[in-house]
Each structure stands twice: as structure tokens, then as C-alpha cells.
Design goal:
Layout (H helix, E strand, L loop, with lengths): L8 E6 L2 H9 L8 E5 L2 E5 L1 H5 L8 H7 L4 E4 L4 H17 L5 E4 L3 E5 L1 H10 L1 E5 L4 E5 L8 E2 L8 H4 L3 H24 L3 E6 L2 H7 L8 E4 L4 H8 L9 H9 L5 H5 L3 H5 L4 H10 L16 E11 L2 H19 L19 H6 L3 E9 L6 E7 L2 H5 L5 H16 L6 E11 L12 H5 L25 E3 L6 E3 L3 H8 L1
Parallel strand pairs: 2-4, 9-11, 10-11
Antiparallel strand pairs: 1-6, 1-10, 2-3, 5-6, 7-8, 12-15, 13-14, 13-15, 16-17
Helix pairs in contact: 14-17
Length: 488
């Protein structure tokens, strides 16, 4: 009798990613409490700092009161994190060359290893290799890492192995274990990993044992996982959805499970009802979609509500410099930036040798959702010319777009400059599917009154985001207080 065809999904979540980038670059920071500053908030902290009582998203003033010895590094320029993220993505691609790898944000990756599991089942073994190491994985390898089953991990693993479905997850746990080890040995990074038969379970499973560990979710462990995490911790079940449920006195997983699909459709629209019906049962049909080249690149900054062009110009200028450093060859003006980096060139041009054909500028009025955009073709010669006036010419295009968007008098709070329509768009792969995958990506609007010249990205964490009750914007937690002032 053939074994049932199932999927085996691995979710990799880099531990305290921004902080870890600095710890790998400077090993002397590993044993010190470390925080990564973005604006007036710590975007993340390492686990040493958390052991001292300093959580991520803490205000810097509060963090220093809790831990005066806290080392703070600036994390507002995202280039180093993008480079590391690209390197890890490439590593996983090469490690699982026959499998789709999907990147979420900078620090999370899904890998559908079903093909590898099937190959091991057919041929009894598979060689996992990097440039320096080879590991033979067989279909007789024992479980690796914690498992979550109906007894909360105290299951008879030998008995469970008689089922094809569970045997696939066992092989998945072995693949995850060795991939974690190789990632740490080759690149120096640790991660928390979840293994499951769909993306939802893999992501939620990886949150069970942190840091530098893994969890495999078995079929009879789904209910335990969901009950342990609760409604708030289900990716995709956001504050607005929970508010609607609470309005009907529904606050627990069991209460949602008691509702039929018809009853859920009385509370939500059909798409949301079906999504929730599946999620609370641990079901997710979304495929792991191979991440392709970015179709657009943007840098955004909240400059605080202003009607003065003198405040807009320098911030737009700085945003454009950072953006151009991501898409064109190294330019002399990079050295004029106030912060020092070994090299500001990001991964895109170096990897793909492509250039955008469209320049786009977006601005927000008093409210973040009051966004308008204009775009203009940008000549290839402007991006490739070896001329110190290149930046000024492109900046003039941006300023012209700004005047088209906001003729005087104006009120602007957020500036976003970006490029799109790359000259290889015809062959670009899709960035990913919608459904739950879209919910699993953190949006990153900016807080009011900030003075950074770069986009600030929060790590993707359900506790790291909140939904504004006034305008409905989904923002990082560190924006909560400034955003309240924004509406006051």
C-alpha cells in the first residue's frame, strides 16, 4: 500500500537577527548584553540582554535603567542585514537545490523539503553537502530535537514511525538538525526551526523552543500547539479579527472550533471565514513559493508632519543616496554619508547586474493612509554614468515628482522613494503567494517624529506589531506611543 503523499516544511527563524549580525561581525559582543537601536527604540536585543530583563522593543532610556552595561549599536542602516539575509538565502538554496526556498522579511525562510524526503524514502539515503562538508542522511536516522505530539512530546516515537506521514516528519527533523548545524558552522548563525506538514505549523512550531533549537509538530500535536499558543499567537489572526471575535464573546481556540463555517461567515467575509476555519485546525494549503528577485526597492522615512520644503529636501536627499547604493555600482558620494560602512553597495546590482527603469516617489499627508504617488521613467545612462553630478540629476527628478504630488502649500509626514520596472522583470519570479504568507510578513511604516534617514524594519514577530484603532495601520510596537501622538 502506498504511503499518503504529504508535505514536509521547514521554517528557519534567525535568532535575534539584527543583534546576531553584529555578534558574528564582532565576537566580543556575544557574551555582552546587546541592543540594536532604531530611532529611540531597541528593535531587538540579544538573549544575554533579555536575561538581564531588557526586552526587544524597549525604549533605550528604560533599557539603560534596567541594564546600565547594555551595549547599544545603531541598526538604522539595513545594508548589513540585507547582505547577511541574502547570504543565508543563497546557502539554503544550495543546500536544498531541488527545493523551493521562500524568504519572509530578512530573517525567516520556508523550505519545502518534500522532494528530498521522497528521494530518501526511495533511495534510502541522501547526501547533504556544502562546499566543505558532506553528511549522509538515511531513512533510518532517528528523531532530532523536541517533538510535539498529543502527549506534549512524550510519545512512542518508534510506534509512530510506522505511519508514513510521521516518518516523513522524522526525516524532516533530521534535515533541519543538520541544516542548522551547517549554517552555524559555515556562516556563524544560529536559528530556531519548526518542522511540520504545512507552513502554519512549521512557523508556530519553531516558536516553541528558542533560541538555537527546533520543534517538530506531529499530527496529533496540532491541538496541543494551538492551545499552547492561543488565538493571539496564530499568524494571520490579527487584532482586527480577534476584535470581531471578542465582540461575539469568543476569546478562546475552543470557542472558535465550536463554530461552523456558516457561523464564521456571519462574522467575517467568506475569505476570512474560510481562513480562520482552517487556521484554528492547524490547516494551511499555501505552497512554499521560491523567492525571486525583488520587483521594486524602496526606502522610507517618517520626517514628522511638516509644510517646510527645507525639512523635506535633506531627508529626501539622504533616502535617495541609500537607495542608489542598493541598485548601482559604488559611488564616490557614499563616502560623504555621516555613518561609516565598509561598502554601501547592497546585493541586487552585484547579483543580477540589472537596473530599474522607473523612479517612484510617495508621500503621506497628516495620516499614514493618506498616501499619494508619482513615477517617472529614469534613463539608464543616469544610473550608469561615471559622473559626480549623477546623484544631483536623479535628485532633481525626485524633487520634480514631489512638486507634482504636493504643490504649495503642503503637509507631509512620510517620504518614500523607490525604483521598479527592472530591465529583467519579464523573467522575475513571483515574490510569494497571498493567503497566510501575506500575513506572515511584517509591514514597516515609520513612527511619527522620527529622524532616521532610512526605513526601519521590525523583526517579524506577532508581539512586535500592533494595529491602530484609529486608522487601522499595522505598525511595529516601537511606533505605538509616537503613533498615538500622531492622532492626538
Amino acid at each position: 500500500m502506498d504511503k499518503p503523499r504529504t508535505r514536509t516544511i521547514i521554517h528557519f527563524d534567525l535568532d535575534c537577527f539584527y543583534a546576531q549580525v553584529h555578534m558574528v561581525e564582532n565576537p566580543s559582543l556575544r557574551d555582552k548584553p546587546l541592543g540594536v537601536q532604531q530611532k529611540t527604540i531597541l528593535a531587538t536585543t540579544n538573549y544575554v540582554a533579555r536575561a538581564h530583563g531588557v526586552p526587544k522593543m524597549a525604549r533605550i532610556t528604560d533599557a539603560l535603567k534596567i541594564c546600565p552595561s547594555l551595549v547599544i549599536v545603531n541598526g538604522e542602516v539595513l545594508t548589513p542585514y540585507r547582505r547577511v539575509s541574502a547570504a543565508i538565502f543563497k546557502f539554503l538554496q544550495q543546500l536544498f537545490s531541488a527545493c523551493p526556498v521562500q524568504r519572509l522579511g530578512l530573517d525567516e525562510f520556508f523550505v519545502d523539503v518534500s522532494r528530498v524526503v521522497e528521494k530518501i524514502d526511495r533511495e534510502a539515503q541522501w547526501i547533504m553537502q556544502t562546499g566543505t562538508q558532506s553528511i549522509c542522511i538515511t531513512n533510518a536516522d532517528k528523531w532530532k530535537g523536541p517533538i510535539l505530539d498529543g502527549n506534549n512530546g512524550v510519545g512512542k516515537r518508534v510506534k509512530l514511525d510506522q505511519e508514513g506521514h510521521v516518518a516523513s516528519l522524522r526525516v524532516g527533523s533530521v534535515l533541519a538538525y543538520h541544516a542548522r548545524a551547517l549554517l552555524e558552522q559555515e556562516l556563524g548563525y544560529t536559528c530556531s526551526v519548526g518542522v511540520g506538514d504545512n507552513k502554519l505549523l512549521a512557523k508556530m512550531g519553531g516558536e516553541m523552543h528558542k533560541p538555537n533549537n527546533q520543534t517538530t509538530v506531529l499530527p496529533d500535536g496540532v491541538a496541543v500547539l494551538l492551545q499552547t499558543r492561543g488565538l493571539k499567537r496564530i499568524p494571520g489572526l490579527g487584532r482586527a479579527m480577534r476584535r470581531l471575535l471578542t465582540g461575539h464573546d469568543i476569546t478562546t481556540i475552543d470557542q472558535v472550533l465550536a463554530l461552523s463555517l456558516v457561523q464564521l461567515k456571519e462574522i467575517f467575509d467568506e475569505k476570512q471565514a474560510v481562513l480562520i476555519f482552517k487556521m484554528v485546525r492547524g490547516r494551511c494549503d499555501d505552497p512554499v513559493v521560491m523567492t525571486g528577485r525583488a520587483r521594486s526597492m524602496t526606502n522610507e522615512d517618517n520626517i514628522g508632519l511638516t509644510s517646510e520644503l527645507a525639512r523635506v529636501v535633506p531627508r529626501l536627499d539622504a533616502l535617495l543616496k541609500l537607495l542608489l547604493a542598493r541598485i548601482v555600482c559604488q559611488a564616490p558620494w557614499c563616502k560623504t554619508l555621516s555613518y561609516q560602512l565598509p561598502c554601501l553597495q547592497d546585493e541586487d546590482y552585484a547579483m543580477y547586474q540589472r537596473l530599474p527603469r522607473t523612479l517612484r516617489l510617495s508621500v503621506c499627508g497628516p495620516k499614514y493612509h493618506q498616501r499619494t504617488s508619482k513615477q517617472e521613467p529614469i534613463a539608464k545612462r543616469l544610473l550608469t554614468m561615471d559622473d559626480p553630478t549623477r546623484h544631483q540629476q536623479i535628485f532633481d527628478l525626485c524633487l520634480a515628482l514631489f512638486h507634482k504630488l504636493k504643490p504649495a502649500p503642503f503637509q507631509v509626514s512620510v517620504i518614500n522613494v523607490g525604483v521598479t520596472n527592472f530591465d529583467d522583470d519579464g523573467g522575475a519570479a513571483a515574490q510569494g503567494c497571498q493567503d497566510i504568507s501575506a500575513f506572515m510578513q511584517a509591514s514597516s511604516p515609520q513612527s511619527k517624529g522620527s529622524h532616521s534617514t532610512v526605513q526601519v524594519d521590525a523583526e517579524d514577530d506577532p508581539d512586535g506589531m500592533f494595529e491602530c484603532d484609529v486608522c487601522g495601520a499595522v505598525l511595529p510596537q516601537f511606533c505605538r506611543d509616537p503613533h498615538k501622538l500622531y492622532h492626538s
